[in-house]
Amino acid sequence: MDRKRIYLSSPTMHGEEQKYVQEAFDTNWVAPLGPNVNAFEKEMAAYTDCGYAAALSSGTAAIHLALRLLGIRQGDVVFVSDLTFSATCNPIVYENGTPVFIDAEPDTWNMSPEALKRAFDKYPNPKAVVCAHLYGTPAKLDEIMAICEEHDVPFIEDAAESLSSTYKGRQTGTFGKYGIYSFNGNKIITTSGGGMLVSKEEEAVKKATFLATQARDPARHYQHSQIGYNYRMSNITAGVGRGQLLHLEEHKSLKKVIYEKYREAFADVPEITMNPLNPDGDANCWLSCMTIAKDCNITPDIIMDALEEINAESRPIWKPMHLQPVFAACDFIPHHADGRSVGEDVFYRGMCLPSDIKNTKEDMELIISVVRHCFGR
Ligand SMILES: *Cc1c(COP(=O)(O)O)cnc(C)c1O
Which of 44, 357, 372, 377 is the most buried (most CB within 10 A)? Predict the structure, then answer.
C-alpha cells in the first residue's frame, strides 16, 4: 500500500507553536509552570468567556479534579453520559463513586433529558451530573440544566470534543459549575496532550491548581494536609496550546466544511444520515459521523473496511459505557421507557468518517466515492 494515509483527525500545526516553545527554551522555563501556562489560561478564559481556567496534563485529570472539588466519595452516585469516551466516567471510579449511565437521545446523541428525569426517580440524591458534548454537538443544555437545578445537583460539562462549539451563543464548557477541555492529539486543537478545568468560581480553580501541584500547603517546609496530584500542564506544552489557539476558529470552519461536504455528497443516498447537529447551537463538527438506515444490509464494518482499502482512517462510534465489560455492574437508564437504548442503536449503525482538516479535495472525493460505492452508487 503506497497510497498516503488519510487521517481521521490528526494534529494540524502552523508554526506559531514553535515560537512560544522557543521562548520557553530561551528563558529556560522548562517546567510545569511558567509564563506560557499563565498566558494560555488567560487566553483560553478570554476565548471561551469561562471565567477562570487551570491548565492540566489531560482532560481526564480535569474531570478528576472537578469531582474532587465536589467531594465525590465512596458510594456516591454520579449520573454520566453513556455514549462517550471512557475518560468521561473513569474519574468517578478513581474516587470510588458509582457511575449511573444515562442514555443518549436521538436529536443530538447526547445525554437524554428524559432518561435523566427517570434516573432522578430511581436515585434521588446523585452528587453530580457529568455530560459530554459528543463529536462537538452541544447537548440539550437548557433541558438538562433545568433538571439539575430542580434537584440542586452540580453539573459538570465534558467539552473535551466541543471546544469552540456554542449553545445559544455561549461556548460549551461554560454552562456547568465546572467545564473541562482536552488538548489531546486528535482534538480540534492540541498541545500533544493536555487539558483544562474552567469555572466562574475563582476559588474553585485555585483549589484545582493546588490539588494539581501535589496539594502543598503554604509553608516553607513540604507540608500536606490533603492528597494531591501531579496534574499541571508544562510550560512547553502550554506554548504549543497558545500557538494552536490562534487557529481554533479556522480549524472549526474547516471542520464544518468537511461536514457540509459529506452531507451534500450523501444527500441522495437515503440509507445514510449524518450525525445530528443541535439547532440551538453551532457545532465545531470535530468528527463527521454517519448512521446507516435500520433496514439496510450494509454495516459500518463494511464501510470501514472499504475505507481501509484506500488507506483512509475511520472508526466506530464510541461504544456505550453500559456495554463495557469493566462497567457491567453499573446501572443504565435508557432513553425509551420500554428499555430500548438510543446509544446502542447509534453504536451499531454508526461510524466516524475521516475528518482531518488537512485532507485534500481529492482525498474527500475519494472517500465519498468509496462510501457511495458501498451503497451501489
Ligand atoms: C478526549 C476526551 C476526554 C479526555 O481527554 P484527555 O485529554 O485525552 O484525557 C474526555 N472526554 C471525552 C468525551 C473525550 O473525547
Answer: 44
**Grid coordinates representing 341?**
437504548
Residue nearest (by alpha carbon) to ligand 1 atom 14: 160
For 110-119, write each residue's pLDDT tens digit.
999 999 999 9
Cβ–ligand 1 distance for 110 under 6 Å, the answer: no
Q: Residue 249 contacts by C-beta under 8 Å, 6 or more apart in sequence? A: 164
Tell me the CA–centroid distance for residue 88 and ligand 1, in Å.
Answer: 7
**Positive/negative CA dihedral, 69, 70, 73, 77:** negative
3-state helix, strand, coil in the chain (%, to 5): 40, 15, 45
Mean pLDDT across 193-220:
96
Ligand 1: residue of 63, 85, 172 to mutate (most ligand atoms within 8 A of CB) is: 85
pTM, two decimals, is 0.97
- Ligand 1 near 58 CB (within 6 A): yes
Quick one: pLDDT band at residue 2, thresholds 50, 70, 90?
Answer: confident
Q: Look at residue 32 in the predicted model and tell me its pLDDT.
A: 87
